[in-house]
Amino acid sequence: MFADLVTITGIRERSPVLEVGCGTGQATRSLAALGCSVTAIEPGAGMAALARRRLATFGNVTVESSTFEEWDDRGRRFDLLVAASAWHWVDPAIGWRRAREVLHPGGWMAVLGHVVIRRPGEPEAYAETADLHELFSPGNPDWGRPPLEGDVRSTDEGWGLVDDPGGRFGPTIVRWYPTVQWFDGDGFADLLRSQSPYRRLDHDVREPLLDAIAERIRTRMSDRAARRYLSVLRIGQRAD
Q1: Are 226 and 182 spatial neighbours (Cβ–Cβ below 8 Å)?
Q2: What is the rounded CA–CA span in Å between residue 82 and residue 64?
Q3: Alpha carbon 29 to chain centroid, angstroms
Q4: What are the distances in angstroms from CA 213 to CA 43, 86, 208?
Q5: CA–CA distance from 17 to each of 20, 35, 68, 234 (Å)?
Q6: Which residues, in sequence order, are CB contacts of 141 under 8 Å at separation 6+?
Q7: CA 25/CA 109 separation, integer angstroms
Q8: Tens-place pLDDT, residues 72-115
Q9: According to the model, what pLDDT value does residue 72 have?
Q10: pLDDT tens digits, 13-26
Q11: Which residues of the chain have pLDDT under 70?
């Protein structure tokens, strides 16, 4: 993904890059490794502090605590703006306008994201455990099967599920990156334990549910469950 980002945008070592919503610095690390001069914005004070610690060995990264909407750019301008699984948190009425403003003429906007998918005919963990989800947490709006890979790939135009920028950027370039992780039952339960739909459950609901899911994967799926993802890179150049 980051190799394609470099090829498409033409960014080079020391190119000024702005990252919106850096979180704990996962994408930031990859940008820093390219040698870019990275300014990363993170509204969460705790995550910003963790990002600073994790990125302390890079001399080309600055982490600033702010929302993008309220961030003081101090006249700085950038060759590339990156938002990795974060742009949906930005107010579109402000975000797209500000994104164009802080980019140099000819600058690029890149939105990175990930979605869990399934493939037709392949056993899928949620389908095999839907009855357990309903048994332990009935009617929960978070429950639902992942979309089919082909349906997700059909959204290969525009900026995906976020609001349209209204002509501030040119046509998007879209790239897809499929990955898969394999888990045994206990490992899959640990993965779910780290995710917000399950973390929101009461402990007395979550742990019996996850224990039941792990047992179902062991007994019905030969203790081997796939978690498939499509990562997506959407890039558009500033319209001048």
Answers
A1: yes
A2: 15
A3: 14
A4: 35, 30, 9
A5: 10, 10, 14, 16
A6: none
A7: 18
A8: 999 999 999 999 999 999 999 999 999 999 999 999 999 999 99
A9: 96
A10: 999 999 999 999 99
A11: none
Residue pair 24/46 in contact by the 8 Å Cβ criterion: no
Q: How many CB atoms lie within 10 A of CB 1?
A: 15
Distance of CA 12 to the CA centre of its chain: 24
Looking at residue 69, its pLDDT comes to 96
pTM: 0.87
In DSSP notation, 159-188 reads TTTSPP-TTSB---EEEEEEEEEEE-HHHH
Task: Identify the CA nearest to 28 among candidates 61, 6, 59, 50.
Answer: 61
For 88, the token pair is 């949906």
Query: Which string of DSSP letters, residue by residue, matches 141-161?
Result: TT--PPPBHHHHHT--STTTT
Query: What distance in Å separates the CA atoms of residue 55 and residue 68, rounded to the nearest whole number?
Result: 20
Residues 86, 92, 97, 100, Cα dihedral to 10°: 30
Nearest CA among 206, 189, 208 for reference residue 197 = 206
Percent helix / strand / coil, the chain, rounded to 5: 35, 25, 35
Q: Which amino acid is at 203?
A: H
Structure-token pair, residue 194: 């780290």
Provide the greatest CA pair distance for the chain: 60
Map tokens 């690390």 to a residue.
Answer: 29
| Neighbouring residues of 6: CB distance < 8 A, sequence distance ≥ 6 | 34
